[in-house]
Amino acid sequence: MRDVKSLTVKLPDQIADEVARMVRDGWFQSENELVRAAVAEFLRTRQTELQERFQREDIAWAVAESKPG
Question: What pTM was estimated for this model as a whole?
Answer without folding.
Answer: 0.63
